[in-house]
Amino acid sequence: IFKDERALAKTLAVQIAASLGGRPDIVLGLPTGRTPIRLYHELGMLYAHKQADFSNATTFNVDEFLGIEPTHPGSYRAFMEDHLFSRVNLNPERIHVPNGVAPDPDAECARYEAEIAEAGGIELQLLGIGTNGHIGFNEPARELVARTHRVQLKASTRRSNATLFGGDLDKVPTEALSMGMGTILKARRIVLIATGKSKAKCVERAVNGPITPRMPASFLQLHRDVELMLDEAAAAALNPQQLA
Q1: How do the residues of the chain divide into helix, strand and coil, expressed in percent and rounded to 5?
Q2: Which of 77, 101, 103, 210 is deepest in the core (most CB within 10 A)?
Q3: What is the pTM of this model?
Q4: Is residue 134 flagged as an active site residue?
Q5: What does the pLDDT look like over 42-60, one tens digit per residue?
């Protein structure tokens, strides 16, 4: 538990830099959204000060909107370029983001799964969490798709992404491509980041509630090596024993 978002981001950035130092060819799974922005900027600062080297690392993003070009300012590929890729020395050939304009979305999902496997799997998967408990674009549902798949976005998720489209909800795609929870759980280590009071309830349910597709983040309970990094606001609903 960290005092604030800045302290959390600085600590995790240093940990990632150390992982890069110990294993330069590490495979990283990366999220988008508001939560990791400060982390990505901290990583950019470490690189600028020659304290992090991404030249041999490989990255796989968790998700992308369906139907928009990678160069579209609302795409997650453009988001990553703005906040991380342009700030560090990642090899462009080692950057992987689902192709939202692939002619066959299902074939693109299968291709993406194969690329992850070919890279040896994800060593460190970074995650955020939505206010409804979604991970990536794995939305609450009666059942979850295990592997990378096409998903219909809920209205709440589209609203939370409207800022990427000039605040116009009508411009937010209704579908996306996302790693499945099974894909995510195959990562060897997972770090989930949550900040702000709006995340407190879903963090508590993910930690203490039943494992259910209605709360996709609850499936992280099944993984052998998961760390939650929270600011005080996001941890507010956890009981004192869990914070000790």
Answers
A1: 40, 15, 40
A2: 77
A3: 0.95
A4: yes
A5: 999 999 999 999 999 999 9
